[in-house]
Amino acid sequence: MKTAFLDDIIAAVSTPMGSGGIGIIRISGKGSIDIADKIFKSVSGVKLKDKPTHTITYGNIIDKNGNTVDEVLVSIMKGPASYTKEDVVEINCHGGTAAVKKVMETVTLAGARTAEPGEFTKRAFLNGRIDLSQAEAVIDIINSKTELSMKNAVNQLSGALSEKVKEIRSGLIDAVSTIEAAIDYPEHDIEEETYASLNKTVNQALNSVQKLIDTADMGKMVRDGVNMVILGKPNVGKSSLLNFLLKEERAIVTDVPGTTRDTVEEYFNIAGIPVRITDTAGVRDTDDVVEKIGVERSVQRAENADIILLMLDLSRVLDDDDKKLIDFIKNKKHIVLLNKTDLDQKAEENEINSLLESKNILRVSVKEQKGTEELLKLLEEILTSGTVEAGDGVMVSNVRHKNSLEKAAQALEKALNTIEIRMPEDFVSMDISQAIDFLGEITGESLQEDIINRIFEKFCLGK
Amino acid sequence: MCDINAEKTYIADECDVVVVGAGHAGCEAALASARLGFKTVVFAINLDSIAMMPCNPSIGGSSKGHLVREIDALGGEMGKNIDKTYLQIKMLNTSKGPAVYSLRAQADKNRYKEEMKRVMEETPNLKIKQAEVTKVLAENGAVTGVVTSSGAVYKAKAVILSTGTYLKARCLFGETIIQSGPNGLKAASELSQSLMDLGIKLYRFKTGTPARIDKKTVDFSKMTPQYGDEKIVPFSFEDKAEDIARPQVECYLTYTNNQTHEIIRNNLHRSPLYAGVIEGTGPRYCPSIEDKVVRFSDKERHQIFVEPEGENTNELYVQGMSSSLPEEVQIALYRTVPGLENCEFMRTAYAIEYDCIDATQLKLSLEFKNIKGLFGAGQFNGTSGYEEAAAQGLIAGINAARMLQGKEPVILHRSDAYIGVLIDDIVTKGSKEPYRMMTSRAEYRLLLRQDNADERLTPIGHEVGLISDERYQRFLKKQELIAAEKERINSVTIGLRPEIQEFLERHHSTPLKSGARLSELLKRPELNYDILAEIDTTRPDIDSEAAHEAAIQIKYEGYIKQQYNQVKEFKKLENRLLPEDIDYNDVKGLRLEAVQKLNDIRPLNIGHAFRIAGVSPADISVLMIYLEQIKRASKTEGEE
């Protein structure tokens, strides 16, 4: 199925990813101010809908769990005095990929749809904002951007993603075609689907879809940069490593534990892949209030990282903080650096190996640049060989695909509920069909014909 | 285009509408236009074949039953006619959701024909003629009439082609090829050429039918009887169950076996299909028994339903045994089936090939894009099935009349009716095989239920003029009843009493924690309106149809609402009309493939354009911008 909505709420990041001090997320459509009110808490407590048009409000973006996502300025422009002539909200958040990405995600979760290429401009034109003479320019934008994204889409579709989505879809079509065959040919002896088997099929599909959604961030990583975090207790040599990677004195390097109180973000390249690296404050239980904020933030950063570089200090005995960190990275992509090989060794390497089964443990001395070449090689290997990619090597890098997958997941969750409460099978079929439809948006296949073809492939029917 | 005087012709009549063919499409078309006040002439090659059922003796079934209810709700005849002539009625899929409940009836074929012919004969403005139409006349891109094989010219402002499987038909079984239409009737061999001369592209489809056997030679004790429903539901909203109740006749179920399959496999080379004699494209929906055995070779047996063709005949229809194998092979393989060991053939099974069109040559009104006043309906349009045909016939008849009235055609949306889905599908996508209606083709099927066909379509039928004021008033009253009962169900509260808890337990339903509304209980999957009667003490004694309709609307409220929302989105695009005269070559920014497809299909609106394969979302954006451009341009002109 192809979808095209004329006046639902659309959103997009309108500043280039990963650059600039601020990121702007633009939302347009009837109800966009309500959506903003759902996720925005102004410091003064005032609701955006009660504010006059063309005003700016200061506050925080809050996710559905009540956590603060980012501190932002929000401007509202009520239609028709806006770019698209619809109600428009612009969220000015902190620049940097992670922050912008998070805010954008919160916005779409609240009900906005990711805009198609050129869609704001298209609406501006359709709503009479842009002069007739510019119509052709608008078409050019739509075509060029679509071409570009279609090219990307084609590249991606020729590969593993399309295969994966088709596989998931096919499993669902199988289930639906059985239900539908029994409906269209009630008197044929068709072995009907049981709720248990339906439940299993849908659950499997949902898991696979969910996995793909999870890789969406990985896919974005290649486009927007890999998010790497250096983690470790204070004074294990994190800032030295950062400086080595950046080859410049960026962080303040001292031997006083806790010098880096906030996180430091920098960019560098490995094999052409942009890497955004975050040096965090050393992690340890601390009473220092300022430092504590830094620690929390560093763990939070590490939580969202694509790769964690965990530094352990071989010259000190392994303590609980280290063990906690080892535990924290266990199921995440990581490289463990056993630093300070130049000093006397007090930590037990055997103990580390027993705590963590990992191929990616390297002995280094950042200070003497020993083992650092190996580190760079390992990083390059991980980034280019695709070990960062999750889910059977399939990545989702296109927002539209991610949107479709999310909608498919929602429909499947609904199907599970329909099965759970034992609604008649054709309701289950309706829910699953919707999921198939959304998956078909990615592969460009049509629901109706596919189901009907499958029915007649699978079953011997007809008078 | 055709010089009438060049041949030995005479002017036989001048009328408004001519209908070519009096099968299920032709009957509905002719009745609709005549009932709307237009002088109509309908032709059949043989008047005994009016409303003939050349294949299965049944009407309705999954999704086809929906079509019949819709035809009735619009003011068509099929539902009423089967109510008069059924042998057995069954509501199918009752264990499934309300969207897929489907009525099916076994028909008495002869009585069905007779009754329909009688209704036609009694309809004012309608003339019935036995003749073969050989030519369609057109001038300046508009139809002007038809010519019959006897040289009679019937001038007409509109012509509806519902030629079924008669065009250049030939029937095949084994090495035998008979140049005839269905059931040994004469084929229409000349009309095809005339249509091609008018620029109409023809295709070749095939279908088939099983043998008819003699009841006296069948051993029913070896088969399982299949009964109709005790409590029947009529097809027509106008009929009451008690008025049409009569003793029902049973069908029988039996199976093929290895021996049957063995005979088929040994004789496949003699099948015209497998020998490559048949050129036409057959439907997957009605596979021959040899197709089934080849395609599903691991299946040990196939179901065979033995169905009566009528009360006053011994002929039995053997559903599941279509074949085009040689006659002697057919007899041998039929006789391997339990109960049919000694069966005598009365009519041999055959495959039939015929000319039809790809319906993309039509508008959604079923009028040809390039020939004003010429309409197509039924199997001629590449569909399969009596009900599909009747539905198109009715719409073609209505729209021919609307054209003569100078009114906009009736076009049912996909969200209005199965009829809308059917016509939209064939006109937008065409069909490479005979098209059969299926519930899975209807994306909004929860809204397109067989129970609410009247709610969806009777106002349209009334507006068109096929539903009388009297019937419309009854319809409105029913809607009031439904609304009142809905309100009652939503407001009645059920107290926390021991007998209620006991009732719920008995039906495996969670006991109440506090008082609940009746509607909440109704929404529980394990309960329904009939079960709740026991504790619903204030239930009024109202029309059961209306009461159940109200219950469905409440029970499935959430799902129904969801589909309504989808329809709302769908309608937004459907409401953006594309001017009829756009030359898509002039629309800058469209991709080449889209230009060709759009020029070919000529969609009515943006939503319609969107359903065409090969039109991308970017093309749709371009079209919307183009629409805006012309809108503004015309506004500027107006201001000047």
Keywords:
heterodimer; A: alpha/beta; Gyrase A, domain 2; Four Helix Bundle (Hemerythrin (Met), subunit A); Rossmann fold; 3 domains; 7-stranded mixed sheet; 6-stranded mixed sheet; B: 640 residues; alpha+beta; Arc Repressor Mutant, subunit A; DNA polymerase, domain 1; 6-stranded antiparallel sheet; 21 helices
SSE layout:
The complex is a heterodimer of chains A (463) and B (640).
Chain A: E1 10-13, E2 22-28, H1 32-39, E3 40-42, E4 55-62, E5 68-77, E6 88-94, H2 97-109, E7 113-114, H3 119-126, H4 135-158, H5 160-184, H6 195-224, E8 226-232, H7 238-246, E9 264-270, E10 273-279, H8 289-303, E11 307-313, H9 320-329, E12 334-339, H10 349-355, E13 361-363, H11 372-385, H12 399-420, H13 425-443, H14 447-458
Parallel strand pairs in A: 1-7, 8-10, 8-11, 11-12, 12-13
Antiparallel strand pairs in A: 1-2, 2-6, 3-4, 4-5, 5-6, 9-10
Helix pairs in contact in A: 3-4, 5-6, 5-13, 5-14, 6-12, 12-13
Chain B: E1 10-14, E2 17-20, H1 24-35, E3 40-44, E4 58-60, H2 64-74, H3 78-85, E5 86-92, E6 102-107, H4 109-122, E7 126-130, E8 133-139, E9 142-148, E10 152-155, E11 158-161, E12 170-173, E13 176-178, H5 191-197, E14 202-209, E15 212-214, E16 224-226, H6 241-244, E17 251-255, H7 258-267, H8 289-295, E18 303-308, E19 315-319, H9 327-334, E20 345-347, E21 350-357, E22 374-376, H10 386-405, H11 418-429, H12 453-464, H13 469-491, E23 493-494, H14 498-506, E24 516-517, H15 518-522, H16 529-532, H17 544-555, H18 557-574, H19 592-601, H20 606-610, H21 617-639
Parallel strand pairs in B: 1-10, 2-3, 2-11, 3-7, 11-22
Antiparallel strand pairs in B: 4-6, 5-6, 8-9, 9-10, 12-13, 12-21, 14-21, 15-19, 15-20, 16-17, 17-18, 18-19, 23-24
